Amino acid sequence: MTALSLMGVERLKDSVTANGLSTIADYIRWAFSRFNEAELFYGHGTDNGWDEAVQLVLQSLHLPWDFDRSLMSCHLTETEQHLLQQQIDRRIDERIPLAYLINKAWFCGMPFYVDERVLVPRSPIAELIEQEFQPWLGDTRVSKVLDLCTGSGCIGIACAAAYPEAEVDLVDLSEEALQVATINVDNHELLGRVECIQSDLFCALADRQYDLIVSNPPYVDAEDLGDMPAEFHHEPELGLAAGNDGLDLAWRILAQAADYLSDQGLLVMEVGNSWVALQQQAPEVPFAWVEFAHGGDGVLALSADDCRKYQDQFKMLVS
After folding, report:
1. Which has the closest alpha carbon to 298: 319, 278, 313?
2. Residue 214, Cβ neighbours under 10 Å: how many?
3. Are 267 and 304 in contact (CB under 8 A)?
4. To which H or E segment does residue 185 belong?
5. Per residue of the chain (319 residues), what is the pLDDT tens digit?
6. Residue 311: Cβ within 10 Å count
7. Which among 83, 141, 181, 272 could disulfide-bond with 153, CB atoms 3.0 to 4.6 Å apart, if both were Cys?
8. Is the CB of residue 288 less than 8 Å from the CB of residue 299?
9. What is the DSSP string of 237-280?
10. Among the listed residues 197, 208, 209, 206, the one whose alpha carbon sits nearest the alpha carbon of residue 265
11. Hey, how many other C-beta atoms are within 10 angstroms of the C-beta on 224?
């Protein structure tokens, strides 16, 4: 270790010793206060400073949510205190999303490994998965699912859990994203039923057919991308940016989905705030815009029949 790094360690030790903090509860309270003072943005798993502080401290210490709360008064080792000091400082000074600091996010109640190669899971599509896409799927038997623009693989893996007999393809253009998705497929013991495929949308899928295509593609327009809080700039721009109106990928997906859906199949796609522009450009298409009990909007459902009926129009809208 260099003299400079040794000096840094000594300064950190002095800071920890001097701050008077020693217990789990101390560090949660302290993190909460510092987060409030720093006016952080919350939108990558929590929506307030208290939940963020609790999650950062417990997960950094490898403690489960349901651990005995009497342990909150337990004193931390010097190493643990140093770790928490660093985690809290980085969350504030660098505005790194919590999920990247602890390399974990939850989706549909399932844990997923995440890092800066993928977006942090947060799609309202989770609610649809838990409802097995009803009422839009009806009696359709789901045996093949496509998660297009998969990122961490969270949507497709959650679909695999919801449909234990189905095969699932996780597709992404990014090799780095698929490396993360592969970690999650392995962690959830789904090798053999869930396949990771590198592809520019449908290009590498040949004549595959799906009962359900679910996609959370990039959909942030140029203006919103520039206005995003600092936390979002740690995420890969490839997973966010989608042209001036946020619909570059969405129209391509709509133009091709009909060729990959089974007769009674369903397309579900998230376009976020760009839903207004999409509906305005295709006002006659009967998109079903999902209403969510737990928040979120900009998710459409469209039957295979309607994907075919309007396919030529969708192709004309591809930039």
Report:
1. 278
2. 28
3. yes
4. helix 175-187
5. 444 444 444 445 444 444 789 999 999 999 999 999 999 999 888 899 999 999 999 999 999 888 888 889 999 999 999 999 999 999 999 999 999 999 999 999 999 999 999 999 999 999 999 999 999 999 999 999 999 999 999 999 999 999 999 999 999 999 999 999 999 999 999 999 999 999 999 999 999 999 999 999 987 777 777 788 889 889 888 787 677 788 989 999 999 999 999 999 999 999 998 999 999 999 999 999 999 988 888 999 999 999 999 999 999 999 7
6. 16
7. 181
8. no
9. GGGTB--SSS-HHHHHHHHHHGGGEEEEEEEEEE-GGGHHHHHH
10. 209
11. 16
Do the Cβ atoms of 73 and 25 come closer than 8 Å?
yes
pTM of the model: 0.90
- Report whether 95 contacts 229 (CB < 8 A): yes
At residue 180, what is the residue type? V
- The β-bridge partners of 53 are none
Contacts of residue 111, defined as CB under 8 A and 6 or more positions apart, other chains included, come to 104, 105, 187
The encoded tokens of residue 10 equal 């000594």
The residue with tokens 């602890």 is 102
Distances (CA, A) of 194 to 84, 121, 175, 230: 36, 18, 16, 34
Strand partners, 106: 111
Structure tokens at 32: 């909460």
